[in-house]
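Late entry, evening session. Most of the bench is empty. Finally got around to the prediction I had been postponing all week. Sequence below, unchanged from the version circulated by S.P.
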Amino acid sequence: MPRRKTLPTALTTATAVTALMLAGCSSSPTGEGANGSGSNEGKPSQEQSATIYDFPLNGMEPVGKGEQLTVVLPDDLKQAAGEEASSVVVESFTVSSHELQTAEYCAVDISVEFVSDDARTALLDFYDTLENHENDTDGQKVAHATLYRGEIATLDELDEAAPEEGIYAADDGSQIVQVADCASSPHDDDADITLGFSYPGTRNSISDSHEIYKDFATANLAVMTDGSVSVASTDTGDWTRDSSGNWIKD
């Protein structure tokens, strides 16, 4: 699966997706590196509490097997970036390890939360107008817009005993599983598990084919054979934290 680590952050959105932008308002490491510091403060209302990763300055420990990690854009970054961040359609990603019936690969469960129901609906409606995507399931459209990326399989195509690397999405998008190489350390971001805080726009992919979403920020995950999951590196484009933890434009 192709990797795209360094992405532009200038908000150059195609005319065809102007309506989508209105709907969503609310890899090189960022700052000192893949700095995650998790906390349960402000945790989402879920059956299971999640460690929150908000692109902090200080490091974090991986979450353990079966534990949840929620990756969010920090409010102070969105405030500093202003209009640049105003059209991001993703509120957060919640991830945890997914146990396969083989040790050949590792996997994660991914849940995508949008900034609003309108933003999600606009994304799905726009995909309906695109050649090669109009017959995709809602889950495939969500996964294509927010993850890295390529062809998205349906969840029932996942063979837990003999999986292939790739992304598998439930038809309604309620569950997404990504199968990838196991990480060698919590800072190993070679597994191609990349979460994209996307906004409507057009960009060139590795193959020079146009895709319809850009990323304001990305987070690359590492999942290890023991089931632990960490944010291995991040990319916030031109924005970085200074030594005091404030966001500045680089």
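Two things to note before I forget:
The first helix runs from residue 18 to 23.
The radius of gyration is 17 Å.
Will write this up properly tomorrow.
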